[in-house]
Structures are given as structure tokens and as C-alpha cells.
Amino acid sequence: MKKALILCIILVILSGTLVVSAAGLVDKEKESIVITQQTLRGDQQAAEGWQLETVSHCGYKLNWTTTFAADDTGAATTVFCFKPEGEFTRPVDRKDEVTLYTETGFGVGGNVNLSGVAHSDVFREIAQRTSAGETRTEQISLEDYYTYYPLTLTLDGKYILDIRAFDEVEESKALQDVIQIPVHSQEKLEMSVSKNKDGQIVSIECNSVDGWMETNTHGVFPEEGCYFVCTPTYWDGEATTHIAGAQNAIYYMPIRLTQSREMVGFDQIFKVYELQEDCIAVDMQMDQAGNLLLLTKENDLLVLNVYEPLEQEGELKKLHTTELIPMEEDYYDRMTMTQGSTLITLSSGAFCLLTSQGKGDYEVTLRGKLDPDGELCKHLLEYETFAYDGKRLAIASYEAGGLPDNSIYLAVYGEKGLEYVGFYHHSGDLSSSGSDWYLLMGYRNKENLKLWKE
Fold first, then answer.
1. Measured torsion, CA atoms of residues 242, 243, 247, 251, in degrees rounded to the nearest 10
2. Cα 225 from Cα 100, distance rounded (Å)
3. CA–CA separation, 104 vs 188, rounded Å?
């Protein structure tokens, strides 16, 4: 008993010593982060004046904010902050999202009630042909059951939180009254029904066969409303084609929330602008002035369309159309707006920078490729922030894939294209050899990477 007590006392003393030593190590070198620059492309002089700030953390309790000049990392400064409660510093910013679709890939298990399930009438027919203890699978042609696609609409965004919508069946009927997409003749579904030995339905399953309809829907939420675009296409496994008889259009849906957070508006959707037949919508956003920015793919070109929002029921007013960059076999990546500038990137690394001229007019300021050699595109496409000083564009990103390290890529572009790419190694990286133990847990806080020109 005495030996056990003595052993416990020794362990407590050792634990206390280790904690004190660790705390001393953290306190002694808590602001000793080192940034090491490496030039990967061009001349570092092009980065003169650009400043970066990165935040790393350990469980949001230990926090390091490091600021440095892109052309003089020796002057880097770090501020350490200890937050006992582990404050979560990531800003809440939910992207506006509108999804319009037909249910084609789902399954339901347990004691299955077909009421309210998508394609319930079809499942009932298959169930009638399914014996107890059996699983029956059939392929059906969707146009044998529907003239127009049954639709479901879901919303998410910074103003749309925790909303309950209409009953799915009623919602689909309301949507089809306005948005009529003729069922493609090739669309088939594989549907299965399983029954137990007592003849009860215990599972159902539905999946697309070969191809499917895509609505290419995108939307934004002004207060108490929603604009969304729908440009239906059919993918047959090899190519995308427009669906004959389907309208490409922008719609508006008023949104009112009751005290119980029930949404009213599905039955009040109306069309506000009809688009040309051969365009495909790839994104929709709203600028600071409240204008709608619609990106479309037209004749293998990415095109920006700007509309003035409605003040009352009627048709949107188109303000400007601008051809941006070729988009043949390329995929759209994203559009990011900040301080009067808009950066648009494609999956190949092709980009264009737009600057606002006021009244919905956007001018293409720069076009190019993030890395003409292609090797660094995977990192630069992951950019967290960008800035434009009137002459040069700078983008900053963390390394793509691997460990969530704190090291940064900075790229600078001018009128003639890429002028500089630098890699800024952060001594607190998880992958750094010889790092102190506390920095080995220093994860980056992606949302707090900042970039500006002094």
C-alpha cells in the first residue's frame, strides 16, 4: 500500500514538472515563428509592398497571428494569444444555394410508408408484383409515368436557416405549374421493392440508368425573396444536350417566414427573364449594389450577364453582357468578389479579373492562367484570398492536399501575365522537421488568411 502511495506521489510530481516545463517552452518561444521565402516563378521584386497575415491554432486555445511582407520575411512578427475556452474564430458565412432536382438516387429502409415518397405510384405498381419475402427490381421509362419532371426545390444561405418547406408532393405540383421540363425520352430508372415474409415493404431503392436530367440551378437571396436560374440539360453518359421544350429562365420566389419557421412561397414563383435556348447557367451571385450576376456557358465561352433586381413584378432589366474566357472542355471553378474586384477561375487554371465601373458595368482587367506550366495550378486554385491594387493581382493560398500546414503560396500577375510565385514556409507546419511540440499542433485557420498592398 505504501509503495503504491509513493509511486502515485512520484507520478504526480513528474506530471506537474512536465506541465510546468511545457508551459515554459510555450511561453519562451510562443512568438518565435519563422517564415522562409522560396521563389518558384519569376522575380520576388514583383511582390514588393504586398503584406500577408496568417492565423494558426491548437484547438483554438493557442493562437498565433503572423504578419509578414512578401518581399522581406525577416521582418515577420507574431502575436500569441491564449484563449482558455478555445474560442472558435471561423466566421459564419453560408453560401446562397438553390437546388432544383428530380429524385433519382435514394433508398428507404425499415417499415416503409410509400405516402410522400418520390415516385410513390411507381413503387406501388412494383409492390403489387412483388411476392412476400422477395426483392423485385424493374427498369422503367420515366416518360411512361410523367409528362414533366416532378421537381423538388431546396434552399440554403445566410438568410435561409432551418426552414420547413411544403409537403413534397404539394411542393412538386406547385413547381410544375411554373417550371415545366418535359421528360427526356431516354431517361430510365432502376427501382427495387423488398418485402418480408409477411408481405410488408421493408425497403425500396431508386437509381438512374445511364443518364439523367440536370437543371443547372443557381440562386441568390435578397431579403424576403429568392432569384434562381434553371437551364435544364440531359447527360447521356457521353454528352450534355438541351432538353427540347424546356425553357431556360430566371425565376423569382417571394419568401415569407411564419413564427413557426414555415416557408410560404413555392406556389408564388414567377418567371422574370427568359434566356436563350443554348446557354447553360454555371453560377449566380449578387454584387454589393444588389445587381444579379449570372455566369453562363454559351458557344464554349464563359459569359457574364448583369441584371437589375426587380422593384415590382415584371421582367428583369439586363444591364450588361460581357464575354470572359474560352470554356471548351474546361470546368467552371468559382467566382469570388472583394472590394470592387471579381476573380473568376476555371479548373484548368484559366482566370479573368473584373473591375466594377459602376451601374452594373464590369470591365475585364486581366486574363491569363494561374500557372502557365500547370504544375502549381492545383495549389493556386485553392486560393483563400486575393487583392488588386490597380496594376497587379495577387492571390494567396495554402498547399493543396496533405497535412493542414500553414505555409503559403503567393502569386502576382500583371498585364503580361504571371510575374511571381513564392512559397512561404511557416516554421509551425505539422510536416516541419525539428518543430517544437506545441507548433506541431498548430493548424491553420483558413478563413483568416489576409492579403493587402501597402
1. -80
2. 16
3. 9
Tallying the residues shown for the chain, one arrives at 454
Cross-strand pairs, 193: 136, 204
Grid cell 500577375 in the structure block, residue: 413
End-to-end CA separation in angstroms for the chain: 69
| 76 and 35 Cβ atoms separated by less than 8 Å | yes
3-class SS of residue 210: coil
pLDDT band at 153 (very low <50, low <70, confident <90, very high): confident
Tell me the longest C-alpha to C-alpha distance in the chain: 89
Residue 436 near residue 427, CB atoms below 8 Å = no
Helix residue spans in 84-226 (DSSP H): 120-128, 168-178
Distance, in Å, from the CA atom of 305 to the CA atom of 279, rounded to the nearest integer, reads 11
pTM: 0.84
Instruction: Identify whether the C-beta of residue 449 lies closer than 8 Å to the C-beta of residue 408.
Output: yes
Report angle CA 29, 33, 68 to the nearest 5 degrees: 140
Which value, to the nearest 10 degrees, does the dihedral of the CA atoms of residues 191, 193, 194, 199 take?
A: -170
Please name which of 289, 274, 325, 290 lies closest in space to residue 304, comparing C-alpha atoms.
325
Residue 112, all three cell numbers = 416503409
Quickly count: other Cβ atoms within 10 Å of residue 278's Cβ. Answer: 12
As a whole number of angstroms, the distance between CA 230 and CA 287 comes to 20
Rounded CA separation 102/138 (Å): 19
Q: How confident is the model over 59-118, as pLDDT tens digits?
A: 778 888 999 999 998 889 999 888 877 655 455 556 778 889 999 999 999 989 998 789
Q: How far apart (Å, rounded) are the C-alpha atoms in residues 114 and 160?
A: 29
Q: What are the Cα distances from residue 317, in Å, to 320, 332, 436? A: 9, 26, 60
413 CA to centre of own chain = 25
The three cell numbers of residue 335 are 467566382
Between CA 146 and CA 151, with CA 148 as vertex, the angle to 5 degrees is 100
Of all helices (H) and strands (E), which one includes residue 15? helix 2-28
Rg of the chain, C-alpha, whole Å = 28
Cα 352 versus chain centre, distance? 19
Q: Which residue type does 375 have? A: E
- Gap between the Cα atoms of 70 and 389, Å rounded: 15
Of the listed ranges 162-176, 318-332, 360-374, 383-397, the one predicted with least confidence = 162-176
Contact 232, 244 (CB under 8 A): no
Count CB neighbours of 344 within 10 A.
25
